[in-house]
Amino acid sequence: MQLRYHFQSFLTGGVAALGFGYYRVHQDVWLAAEAVEARIDALGRETVASNTALQERVKALEHEVARLKAVGK
């Protein structure tokens, strides 16, 4: 009879530990997903800003090349 109570306590503790472990893993995965999404958003904004600056530089260079061609004629 005493073995049954020990086994029941062991199972109860095991189920509680598994439940808490599942909760912690779920929270960690949730937080990691949020961090990844935030970084992806930041990279997207950085890429757009970088691309915009690069396009402005290309336009300025094209304008300068056109001006130099006009002067050379």
Unreliable residue runs: none
If you average the pLDDT, what whole number results? 93
Count of helices? Answer: 1
Question: Residue share in helices?
Answer: over 70%
Amount of beta strand:
under 5%
Distance between the termini: 107 Å
What best-fitting shape do the alpha-carbon axes yield?
Answer: rod-shaped
Give the number of DSSP strands: 0
> What class, by secondary structure content?
mainly alpha
Order of H and E elements: H
**Largest sheet entry:** none
The Cα radius of gyration reads 31 Å
What this model shows, in words?
The chain has 73 residues and is mostly helical. The chain contains one helix and no strands. The chain has one helix spanning 2-72.
Task: Provide a concise account of the structure shown.
It contains one helix and no strands.
